[in-house]
Design brief:
The chain has 132 residues and is of the alpha+beta class. It is built from 4 helices and 4 strands. A 4-stranded antiparallel sheet has the order 1-2-4-3. Helix 2 runs parallel beside helix 4 and helix 3 packs across helix 4. The chain is elongated and about 65 Å long. Its cofactor is pyridoxal 5'-phosphate. GO terms for molecular function: pyridoxal phosphate binding; transaminase activity.
């Protein structure tokens, strides 16, 4: 305990920690993120064209999607953004053009029908880019 913070919140936090509350929270959060990320991975696998590779995060919920040869992640990003679908183009994470065929997706949000539709539409945009 210290004098800078009221003792009541300090005691409440100490009790929470001693009773295992934080450990339970972490287990629950990890499970949530693992399930949400796996749902996103599955949706990408269903919606994106053959030749797409998706990372399997071991300690987070960000998916790195490598698009098929010749597909520009920047172009897909711009088209998705015009439809209010938020992704990050691979070029954002490089000082060269090395990752232009990649996208970064956030798999940590609670899974909803809106997200499922957005991933399906994103996959359709990638399919359209192949035909361009």
């Amino acid at each position: 305990m210290n004098l800078a913070t009221s003792s009541i919140p300090q005691l409440a936090v100490a009790h929470f920690l001693e009773q295992g509350g934080y450990d339970r929270y972490l287990r629950s959060a990890r499970q949530h993120y693992r399930e949400a990320t796996e749902r996103m991975r599955s949706a990408v696998a269903r919606s994106f064209p053959e030749g797409t590779a998706v990372s399997r995060p071991q300690g987070g919920f960000v998916l790195w999607v490598q698009l098929p040869e010749g597909v520009s992640g920047t172009e897909v990003y711009q088209r998705a953004r015009a439809e209010n679908i938020n992704v990050a183009p691979g070029l954002m994470f490089s000082t060269t053009n090395k990752f232009d065929n990649c996208l970064r997706l956030n798999g940590g949000n609670p899974w909803t029908g809106t997200i499922e539709k957005a991933v399906a539409r994103l996959g359709a945009l990638v399919h359209e880019e192949i035909g361009r």
